[in-house]
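Sample pair:
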Amino acid sequence: MHDINVIKSKFSFPCIFPIKIIGISNRKVEKFILQILKNNLYKKNNLQINTQNIQKNNYISVTVLFTANNEDELIKVYQKLKENSDIKIII
């Protein structure tokens, strides 16, 4: 998971930013992830999303590439994603 201090010190905004999210495989998790991204990203039209089932379809891996406009946007997305207990890893 990206440390908040790393986000503040290592990136020049706007920038292309990848997030990988791994969670329990169910439609609710996938919908939750997409909703968080759509609700919290300034530029929604730049989303590149790759989804695949892993670990015998018990988990879902969602990789998202998008344009991040500022650190507050990234922090908000990470915080919102962490609210769902079915999401196990955010990288």
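Helices lie at 4-10, 27-40, 71-82.
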